[in-house]
Fold this protein.
Amino acid sequence: MPVYLVTERRDVFAIWPLVAIAVGGVVIGTLFGRRALERIPESRFRAVVAAVLAALGSAMLVKGALALTWGTGSKRSGERWGVSPKLLSSCEMCSLSA
């Protein structure tokens, strides 16, 4: 994050509420996650992480296959996948064409 504050200061400050919420989520998740991890057997934790990674990877493969099948079209990629145009307009990187 510090690199982005230096190189993309305007864009980061434009979405500061989202950044604040994300930072709060990270802090809360770290505190509660540490306690939960102490109670969960390592084998169970590894199995859950593997399942989550497999599901995310599968979803990304399907999303990529659909994008290749249907083409990029004239819409920006975020709009095609249901991301709010207002959110997309809040940073330069999001407004690039797919």
Q: What stands out?
A: The chain has six helices and no strands. The two ends are 24 Å apart (CA to CA).
